[in-house]
Each structure stands twice: as C-alpha cells, then as structure tokens.
Input
Amino acid sequence: MTDHLLEVRDLSVQFHTAQGIVRAVNGISWHLDRGETLAILGESGSGKSVSASAIMNLIDMPPGEITSGEILFEGRDLLKASDEERRRLNGKRISMIFQDPLGHLNPVYPVGWQIAETAMAHGRGKAEAYDRALALMERVGIPDARASMGKYPHQFSGGQRQRLMIAMALALKPDILIADEPTTALDVTVQAEVLSLLEELQEETGMGLLLITHDLGVVAEAADRAVVMEGGLVVETGTPRELYHNATHPYTRKLLAAAPGKGAMREPEDGPEAILEVRDLKKDYGGFEALKGVSFDMHAGETLAVVGESGSGKSTIARLVLRLEEASSGTARWKGEDLLTKSPRQMGKLRRQLQMVFQDPTQSLNPHMSVFQIISEAWVIHPDILPKARWPERVAELLDQVGLSPEHAKRYPHQFSGGQRQRIAIARALALEPDLIICDEAVSALDVSIQAQVIDLLGKLRDELGIAFLFIAHDLPVVRDFADRVLVMQRGEIVEQGSVRQIFEQPCAPYTQRLLAAGLDSDPDVQADRRAARLALAGN
Amino acid sequence: MSNSTTHSTGPTDQQAVTPEAAVAAPVTGGPSGLRRILRMLVADKLALLSALFLVIVILCAILGPLFLAEMASDTNLRARNAPPFELERGFAYILGGDALGRPLLARIVMAARNTMLIAAGAVAGSMLIGSTLGLIAGYAGRWTGEVIMRLADVIMSFPSLLLAVIVLYMLAPSIGNLVLVLAITRIPIYLRTTRAEVLEVRKRMFVQAATVMGASRRRIIFRHILPVILPTLLTIATLDFAFVMLAESALSFLGIGIQAPEITWGLMVSQGRAYLTNAWWLAFWPGLAIILTTMSLNLLSSWMRVALNPTQRWRLEIGGKKND
Amino acid sequence: MNGMLGKRAISSLVSLLALIVLVFFLSRLTGDPAALYLPVDASEAMRENFREIHGLNDPVIVQFGRYLGDLVQLDFGESLRKARPAIDVVLEAFVWTLWLALITMTLVTVAAIIVGSVAAFHVGRPFDRFASVLSLIGASAPDFWIAIIGIVVFSVSFGWLPTSGTGTIWHWILPISVLFVRPFGLILQVVRGSMITALGSPYVKTARAKGVKNRPVIFVHTLRNAMLPVITVIGDQAAALLNGAVVVETIFGFPGVGKLMIDSILQRDFNVILAAIMVTAVAIFIMNILIDIAYALLDPRIRT
Amino acid sequence: QDAGVTIVLGEEPDLVEPCMATRSNIGRIVLGNISETLTELDVRGDEGLKPRLAESWEMVGDDTWRFHLREGVTFSDGSAFDAEDVKHSFERAQSDQITCEISRYYEGIEITPEVVDEHTIDFTTDPAQPILPLLMTLLTIVPSETPIEFTREPVGTGPYVLSDWAPGQSITLERRDDYWGEAPEVASANYVFRADPSVRAAMIATGEADIAPSISAIDATTEMDMSYPNSETTYLRIDQSMAPLDDVRVREALNIAIDREAFVGTILAEGTELATALNVPTTLGWNPDTKARPYDPERAAALLEEAKADGVPVDTEILLVGRTGNFPGATETFEAIQSMLSDVGFNIRLQMVEVAEHEQYYSKPYVDTQPVLVGAQHDNSRGDPVFSMYFKYHSDGRQSGISDAHADELIEKATAATGEEREALWSELFGYLHDEVIADVLLFHMVGHARVGDSVDFTPTIATNSQLQLAEIGLN
Ligand SMILES: Nc1ncnc2c1ncn2[C@@H]1O[C@H](COP(=O)(O)OP(=O)(O)OP(=O)(O)O)[C@@H](O)[C@H]1O
Ligand SMILES: Nc1ncnc2c1ncn2[C@@H]1O[C@H](COP(=O)(O)OP(=O)(O)OP(=O)(O)O)[C@@H](O)[C@H]1O
Ligand SMILES: [Mg+2]
Ligand SMILES: [Mg+2]
Output
C-alpha cells in the first residue's frame, strides 16, 4: 500500500473569500505509482489545479487552507514536512508544469536562465545547468534554441512558452511530474512530440506522471489510469478503456458524449462579401520574420479557423489586425477601410466591432477588477449598448451562458481556475456584441462538456447575430465541428486554405497531412492501434 | 480552523445537482460597502489606531482655532519653558510651556489647521499634477513625453530654497504661496514614478484587452493603469507629508516660510531647535505630532494598499482567524 | 543605445539652458545684492559703486548676454562675496557633497532593499511591523533632532566620535548616519509595498515549484520585478542629497554644496547660485539618464 | 605646535581681506592678529585710544592730523612698514575698484594723506575731523605693493600670518618670529566654523575647540561660559512720518507698554540691560540722566485714549517687522512685544522676515502704505556716537525715522566738535532724542556668551563681537 510513489488521501482544500468559504477540493483520494501515468480529467473548476498546488506546497495559506488529508510521497506525509524539506523536493523530485505559462514565467529574466535555474537551485554547476537547459529547449522544439535562451518570455508565442515550462520542469528528471494542461496551446504535431518525450523519460527514469488534462485524446494516448473529478470530488477512477466503455458516473458519461469531432461538417456558403480582407501582412521582430506576407478574406457570419504550428504567427495576425502591435507592411481592410493606417482615435471607434479573446486569459483580466466590472466595462465604454439598470441581469446571463454562475460576478480573477478565467474572457468579448471575434485558443482550457456548451453558444450567436469568428485553435476536432473554412499556417506563412471538408478530407499541403495524422482520438482502442502503427513505423 | 465546517460532510444534494455552484457558492454571505471597509479596518489594529488618530488631528484642525486661539497666544513669562507633566498650571500645560510660557498642548492643537492645510495642500497638489504629467509622459507620444521628462529634470535641479525665496519674496509669505512652492518642488518624484510604472503597465495584457474593447485613453489610464500605480504613489505621498512639514519648518528657520505669530508644527519645531538641549519639549511635542501623523498616514496607506488589492484583501477579510 | 544617449544629451542640454534662463532672471527679481552685501550704514554712493563693479546696473538682458558669452568660454563669473571664480567655490564644495551622497545612497540602497524585502516577505509579522515603525519614525523625525542627539550621545557623552568637522574617517560617521535615516525610511517603504505586490505573482510560485530557496526567491525573482518604483525613488533621494544636505552641513560644519547654496541664495550671490545649480543639474541629469538606462536593463518589456 | 588654540566661529568669512575687517567674522581673525591699525581702542581698561602702529599723533593746523609711525616694524612678507604703506592702505580702502567696507567711516569727509617722511604721515581733512585718530582704529595697514583687488593672502604687520585656508573647513594662523612687539603666547590658531551654536558649545565641552566666542545664552550654563556686553542695542525704529506714530503720546505709549524687565533672564540672557540710548554706556557722551521709562500699561492706555480723543488714528494697524535669527530668541521677543502692545490697545501685526526683506523695511525709502515699526539691532563699540547718529537720526540718514531740525543741528555740531564740547553735545542729543522726541522704542543692550575651554585663559570683552586678539589669550 505504501509503495505508491505518491498517494493523496482524503485531501480537502478551501479558500476564504469575501463572499465566504469556497471549498475547492473535498476529500479526494488517489495514488500514483512509479512509471505510471495518471490522468486527472474533469470539469473546469473542479479542483484539479488546486490539488496539484497542494502537492507542491504552493497554496497561499491563508487565504487557502488544507482542512484535511495526507499527501504521502514515498510513504512520508508532505503536509507534515517542513518548508525546507518540501523546497528540496520541489523541482528535483517533484516538478510541476503550470497551466498558465505566461504568468508563471518571470518576465524580466531570459528563459535560458530560468530553465537552468532549476538545476542550479539544487546545486548543479552553472555550465552543466545551461547545457541541460539548451538540450531541453531543443528537445521541446524551440526554434534556434541557443539564441532563444537569451530571449524573454514576452518574445515567445503561447505554445512556445508552454514548452519552456515543460523544459523547466524536466530539467532535473524528477520522480514525479505534475503536468497541468501541458499541451493546451500546442498543435498536435508538437503535442505528439512532447508526449513522446515524457514517455521516454518515464521509461528512462521511472517517472510518475500526473497528467491534468481535459483532452480525451491525450488521455487515450498517454494515460495508464484516469481519475475523473467534478465539484471538488473524485467521481470515478479506472483505466481509460474502462472509462471510455463502461463509465458509470453520469458526469463521466456526459464528458465522453461531449467529445468533439463527431458532428457534421459545415459547408461555407458563398455570397456575403468579405468584411475583412488581409493582404500581404508582414511582421518583423528585429530581424526575425514572424509573418511573411499573409493574405486571406473573411466574410460576415463566417467562422475562419486558423490552425498551424505553434509559433507560426497565428496570434501575431490577431495582434496586428487589432493594432496591438504595428505591422511591418501589408493592409487589413475592415469593411473597406484599412485598419492599419487608422489613427488611435478612429481605431477606437471601430473597436466595438472587432473583439478578441486572448490566448493567456489570466493576463488579460485586470486583477483589480471584479468579474462584474470586467464584463460590464464593455457597456461603460459603449454606453449605448445597454442601460445601466440591466447590467447585473445581463452579466448573470452571460456568466450562465459560459457555464459560470452569477455568484461569480463578485469574485476577482485570481480566485478562478484557468478554464473559468477563459470563460470570463469569452463573456467579456460577447458583452460587446461585435461583428467579429478573434478567438485565440479561446476554448483550449475547457473540459469538453463546457467546451461543447461554449461552442454551441458561439454557433448560436453566429447564426442568430451573424457574428464572424476568426478561430485560432490547435484542437482539430473542435475546428472540424465549428469552422466554415480553415487556414493552415506554418512558419509565418499560410500553407493551405479551404473549406473544412476540403482540409479535413483532401489535405494538399504536406504539413496539413502531417497535422491531421498526428491528431488523437478519444477512443483508447483507436488510439492504441494508431500508436502501434506509429511505433512499427518508427521501428523500421 | 475552528470555524470551518467539517470536511467529512461530503457532497450535498445541491452539489450533485449543480456542481459548479457548489464550489462557488459562498458558505456565508459577505457584508458590503462601508460596513465591509470598517470591518477590514478593525481587522488591522494599527490601521484602526491610525485612523482614529487622524480623525483627532482633523478635528483639532477644524475646531482648535475656534476654541483655543486665545489660550495659545497668551504669553505668560512665568510659565516660560514650563516642564511637561505638571498639572499645577492646568491641563493645557500637560505638555509644558513654550519660551513665552504659552501652553504647548493648546498651541499644537491650534497649529494643526495650518499644518494640515499646508501639508495636505502641497502633497495633494504635487501628487495630482505630478502623476497626471507622469501618466501623460508615459502614455502619450515620444515628443510630449520627452518634453515633460525634461521639465521634470529642470524642476528636480531647481533648488527648492531658491524657488521659495523667489515666490515668497515676490508674492509675500502666505500659506497659499508656501503650498505652491512645496508642491512644485515635489512634482518630479510623482512624475517620474508614475511614468516609469506606466511604461511597464501599459504593456500588460489586460491593458491591451481594454484597448481592444475600445476603451478611451482616459479610461485606460485611470481605470487600468492608475490602480496599479496608486499604492506606490500613496506610500510616497504619506511619507512626503512628513517631508513637507519639515521642509516648511526649514524654510521658517531660514526666515522665508510661515513666520510667527502664525503657527505650524514645523515652525514650532524650528523655534524649539535652540532649546533642544535645555527644554527638549519645545521641539519634541510638535515633532512627535509630525511623526505620529506621518506614521498614521503611512500605516493607513499600507492598510489601503492591502484593502485595495483584491489578491491581498483576504489578509483583512479573514482578519482574526489566522494571521500568518 | 548610443543614438539614444546622444539625443538625451542634447535634450538635457536644452533643459540646462532653460534652467539657466529661469534661474538667471528669476533670481534677479529677488532684490539687490548690494543691500545685503554692504553694511546697513553704507552710503548710496558705495552701493552704486558696488553695483557698477559687478555690472548689476546694466539691464538684466545685457547682463544675461554677457553671462552667456562668458559661459561658452567656461567662465562662470566671480562670486560677489568671495571674490573668487564661482565655479571654484562650487566645485570645492560639490566634491564633498558628491562623496557624501554616494556613500549615503549606497548604504541606504543596500539596507533599505534588504530590510524592505524581508519585511515584505514577512508582511504583518513582528519583523515587518518593527522595521516599518522604526523606519517611519526615522523618516519623519526632524533631522536636526537626530543630528543633535547624535552629537550629544556619541560625542559629548561617550566621546566616541568627533562632534563635527572634517579630517578623519570618524568625522563622516555622524553626518552619514543622519543623512541615512530619511531616505532609508522612504525607500524601505517603497520597496516593501512594491515587493508585497510582486510576491503575489505567479512566477514566484514557479520559482518555489523549482525548489528555489527563499533568499533567491526574494532577491532574485521578485526584487527585480519590484524595482521600477524603487529606482525612481532612489533617484529622487539622491537628487535631494546632490542638491545639498543643508542641515547636516550646517550642524556638522561639512563644507558641502547645500550650505553654500543656501548662503548664496540668501545673500543673492548670483554667480555662485548659477554655478552651483549647473553643477548639480549636470549631476542630476546624468543620474536620471543612468536611471532610465537602469529601467531598460531591469525590465526587458520597457526596452522597446 | 603645543601652544595652538582652536577657535570655533559661527560662519566662515567669505574673505580674509584686511580692508573688510569691520565685518565681525573677518575682524575676529584679522584684526590685531594679521593686520594692525595705527591706533587702538582700549576695551579692557579705560585708557581710551592707545598707540599701535602709530606711536603718537597730534593736530598740526586746523584740519590736519600728524601720525608718527613706529619704526622697525616689518610686514609678514618681510618688507618694512613705512608711511607709504599707510598712504596706500588708505587709498586702497577708498578705491572705487573694490568695495572696502571700512571706507564707509570716511564717507563725506575729504581726507588727503600726505607722506611727510618715512615714519610720519599727515592726514588733511575737509571738514575738520576731530576724531580722526579714532577712525584710524579701523584702517588696517597693508604693504604698499598690495594690489587693489581683494586678496586671499593677507599680509600685515600683526603677530600672526595666515598659513593655511582650506575653504569651508578651517583657517590657520601661525605666529611670526619677527613681530615688532611682544611675542604672544599662542603659537598658532586654527579657526573652524560651525553654524549651530549648540555644536559650538559642545566642541568646547569635548575639547575639540578652545574658544567659542559666541554661543547661545541657553547653552551658557557651565563654568566655562562667560557673558559679555556685545555692544548690540535692540530697538524698534519708528517711522514718524506716518500717523499715528507722528504723535508723541503714541510713541510714549509704545515705550511704556513694553515690560522690558520681564525679558531679562527669561527670553533674553541675564545681564541684558535696558537701553536708554542707541549706544552703550561706554560711548562718549552717553547721558546718565536719561532714565528708562517704567513699565506702565495703564498710562499707556490712557495716553492712547487721549490721543484718540484728539483725532489721532490710534486704531490703525501698525506693522511690526522683525528679522528671524537676528539674535537668539528674536522671534519670541517680537511675539511678546506684539502681545504686550496689543494688550494696551495697539493694533499690531507682527511679521518676521529674512535679511533681504528686512533690509527693504529698514532703509529708506520706507514703506508708505502703513505705519511701521522695524525691530533692529545696532552695534557701535567704537566709543563715539558719530558712527551711529547720522544714519539713525539725521533727517538724511538712511535709517532715520525722524526728521527733526534740532536733532540735525546737534548731530552736525557734535560731529565737528572736539573734546568736552563734543561730549556735551552728544549728551544733549541723547537726552533730547530719548526724552523729548521719543525717537524710537529703545529696548536692550544685549549680552553675548562665550565658552572658553580649560586649557586657555581668555576673558571676552565688548570688542569680542568684532575682534579676537590671539595675544590676549593665555595658556593654562
Ligand atoms: N484563491 C482562490 N480563492 C477562491 N477560490 C478559488 C481560489 N483558487 C481557486 N479557487 C476555486 O477553486 C476551484 C478549483 O480551482 P482549480 O484551479 O483547481 O480548477 P481546475 O480543476 O484546475 O479547473 P481548470 O480546468 O479550469 O483549470 C474553482 O472553482 C476556483 O474558482
Ligand atoms: N515580441 C516579440 N519579439 C520577438 N519575437 C516574437 C515576439 N512575439 C512573438 N515573437 C515570435 O513570433 C513568432 C510568432 O508568434 P505567435 O505568437 O504569433 O505564434 P502563434 O502562432 O500564436 O503560436 P502559438 O500557437 O504557440 O501561440 C514566434 O516564433 C515568436 O517567437
Ligand atoms: Mg486548472
Ligand atoms: Mg499564439
């Protein structure tokens, strides 16, 4: 019994807030063995990240409080260990990949140093630590790793940052790796590489992997066992196969049923003229060409998905079109007018029509404002949308639509889980009732049931109000369900564009083909076959 | 831990029905508005004391001159430099008498008005102008920013004393003019602090998010950037209170500031300076008043810093339960 | 970087010129130096003669033209009172002030950052309360109190240190200690506040998850993020010291620029005022440039 | 080396220029130490005018004074002292290329020096100048080679020579071996400067310095401390051209409304004397018959009533101007005066100002928008009222508050008179001003305090305010 590498028994965590006590985790128990991968699936906000933080001793106490339970690492109760002991374990024996990479990287230090520091903090020499950091950055696929070591977090794309976090956590080959949504921002090819890297490490060192994810495909591919959480409780455990085929708890069943990629594909209708015409858009970051001349059109009420390699410039397009950064060259015509030459004042007027959900939801929410203030800010800025008396009602409605409850309106961003924050960001964008919403990985942190609910909502808005979506995503099944047309990007260029059907059924570009092939299926059996085939291929 | 409900109750029915609400649903309702602020104040004993002290000071400033003007200016050479804590001359002499035998307590109370007018006027003025200019310099175009910053350089290198001599020589030493001088000399600190922070904060994602929503510059500055900078500005401002009071004292000492028979704490301190080694209480009590006021303001601003910051506020909200 | 420095140097030069114009004309509105220089019973003829000798009878604009003309030849004029080149008088004093400022600010910076950071880390605990209250008392106490008490205690009672003056290293201890107190309190408070906020950031969690010890978490990870306002305030305090530490100079008989400036202002010794302002302004401008460079070095996001 | 003393002064002199020796901070260093004068006023005994560089002097003719100079005297640069040096010193002081302060004492008199022989010099004056030998106590003698510009390396005939000047820090004088007179005991003197009186006092206590010629009365509590009349007289100058101050009853009321005795030993030091004249009692012609008016607030109030009944606008606000830091306790003094004057019914507004602003009130042209009382101090330790009277009481005097034909006449006559006649005229003037004109509110003759360390023997005198002869210091 005690030879489990890590065992959590009856763990409960709660938070004190102005509105009272929030019970985030309510007596959960599970265990993790050497060399094993345990997936934690579950609803967004069900306590997955909080329980992981408890293991790492990272909960702020107060306002957090661990009210019961034990966390046994190699038989020792971590909750009784001293801070110094736990510090020594952290990073070396137990490592963690955080859900929100941008906030968790120190903005003022070069990433190379930050990765190397893990090793240095545990007594390794500087040269060794840096060598290892470089090797890891290459392993996780950071382009031009040596030069990138000296760059700062804000100079990387979302996916790249996530990979930097992974490299940081792996630096000392820990016994336990807690990976909190490690692949949410990664395109499937990179995701596959990362998963195989983790697997290799497991084979090499017997590392136990605690994989927190909502991606059923990842569970099917990588997990030995899975735990399903809901509302701070563990509702079901089992192997992926057992769960997939014989789930007993209604939530698990709901989750599996919600797995995307099974619906009918949409057919783009020709007709409405283009509302956004992007031509030859280029962006140069001090010699590095992030965008090398991108052109595409968008029509009213259409969903244009942008998929592609991590770091290929997807978010950059969004930032340039919205004038958060200045393009090096090119044009972006919005209903005939070039956005890129507008003065800030003119741009301000247009902004209401174009909204964005940012890739890093945490950083995009003002920590000083309550959720109510964040959402209603739209109406403060554009008072003609809604009379003040109706704000509370509408905030409650929006929160409900994205799967949050009206009570959440009083809380502040830091009191939410990753997925919850993402939904707040979505609600904020919707509050403005714009003509175009740019969703940058807007549903990547949501569990599939909520994801389905949100996608449904977006679909309804598209159909009823004619809102167009520029949908940047890496999750192919979601794209398949939701998009009208798809752009595929690689290294700052559009390699292919076409209707969903065309892209998914007759991909032309080799990169698209690779992308589709790397996609994961939520059925563990299907995934096992694919895996066997891939291994066989590699074996030859 | 005592008051937390036991964890073993497990999931309730309600949780099973709407799991989302279960985690989020507050167990106890939270108070709102003024009550809540008061409760947070009570949670920090030092801040509470500070607030009380400041209320007293403000009351003195408002009421003191109405009741004590006579007593505070009546010379009585027999009580000259009367030592403190002797009650035979009456309670007014509890802090002793000054060089003309006027009761120090009455004079301190009396001086509160001028002192507060000058200090609050100068600090508020410099903070307002300084941080506004700083916001503009940090947020506006290169040119405007550059001009403002160089202006700050000029003010920073313009000796305050010279400014005082110029203004007070040309415009006569009045409280208003003194406030003007002191305010101008303190502008650069707020200006530079604000600008430096704006440069960083404006790059943050939530500011960009607000831009995307079409927020006006003004809104971005005041609603998004300012709250991040405000705590720092407040910290500086509260300490500047002391600085201004003492600077005023130094000017009086040199003969350019407020002069007798007007009184301020600073003036009392500077007049008591000569007696420091013989009748320490002359300079000590007004000095103590300055220290206590500054300290109260600062402790209150520390408290405010926590109370205004949602990620820190729990320190006050869970108050007595668990403090460290 | 060089381009930026060049531009900055030019714009600073413009500021300097503005400063000179401002000081030159404004200071001449504050009265007749002859009245102050000569004894009260001096006759009008003597006063007239004094003004004539020092060129104070010409229209101010003519005086200014002459001043600028001399200035480009690096002639800062004579001190009215000391009958010496103003710049010599100022530089002599400025060296003392510069050292005093440098030493004090170095000590203050180090001490305030360490104590402030540690206090922030233990916010609300006894150490924090103690450090805060003590530093606040220091920061708001009249500095001559501290000076005189220092002299009474350490010089007169214990006889450990000289009361005042210059000469040995011991002479520096009291003045520096007195100068230390106020900036220490102010900077400490700013460090503390800024650090409290920064310590709540997610990257601090990352560092702890990596197993980084408390000390580097505070001083490496968090401090640098909290430094922006701190540096600004350090600059402000340093500027105040460069402008002269009047009380300390007066009480301890320290021959710095502060007392010189005050005396010159009260006596309307215009050339010394101008020279002193120019010298300190140049020092302050250079410091501000260094501070702006420091901002960029500290925070890569500001660099662009 | 061992015989050195350290003297701590309140401020560093801007110059150490002999012709500026009437400034007290320069005089304390220069007078009698570096530079000498032809004559010298005895302040310790009552010898009156004594010879120094001049051995004797006499009148030759109605308007010419002849000085016989001491022989065998050399300057510190080695050159010999002769009549040419005296002539040059005088001309230099009078030159319009530099602003020598001592020249103001020769204002309005045409003086022509003429070298008779190497050791004899004549001064011819127009008009006749009966007190020329007294004026010669002010003329510091420099060698004839001294350029007509301010020097930083003063050369004189005195027993000491300036050996080092570290600006801002200290000035050092070194004893000369070739001094003509008796070699003083003190071998070297180190002057240091501290603005704060309590620090000066502390320095003596710790042994860092030996003499602090002026410390605050408040600190003067130990055995080392000595008080001395510092020749300063504090008074309120009345500008009589403005109503109600043009009424003599009002001026009398001002005088008797102030309880001057209450100040002594409280705000002002013990030993402070009530003044009946602008000059100290040791001055020529000081009038012992003038008596200080006793404090009488009732009478003051009555006088005001009386004046009011006659239509004098006694309710007009009167501005009382004081100077901050004029003397220790200045602010308190003026505050107390204000309160006393208010008590008898004056409408007084007090305004304390800094030097430059004070000067605007003090010297003509006066403020003419409001009646003004200017609090000020006057110092004349030179023994003759001539240095005061013209400025303070003649209609054309720069600081005169009165315009009185009789006073003008007395001043002019006394200035030209000699001997007993002179004394009598001054005496008459003192009486007239105090009793009849009630020219000003005379307050106090002040005292100063010096602290002297155990290792030296020194007694301050009335001259200590303006000079400090090292030769008068003995070592224990
Ligand atoms: N500081 C806090 N104060 C109050 N409530 C909190 C705080 N931190 C987290 N919570 C709440 O605890 C619950 C669990 O959060 P947690 O981050 O563990 O969710 P999660 O399972 O990781 O969700 P996701 O998949 O969206 O990341 C959420 O309902 C959240 O609102
Ligand atoms: N400020 C910057 N300075 C330098 N390079 C940058 C900067 N911002 C982005 N880049 C680079 O530009 C490229 C495109 O970034 P972008 O954020 O658009 O990628 P992305 O397609 O959104 O990737 P992901 O799916 O990982 O978010 C990346 O290679 C990134 O390293
Ligand atoms: Mg999470
Ligand atoms: Mg991106």
Chain B touches chain A through 53 residues (CB under 8 Å). The CA atoms of residues 61 and 123 of chain B lie 17 Å apart.
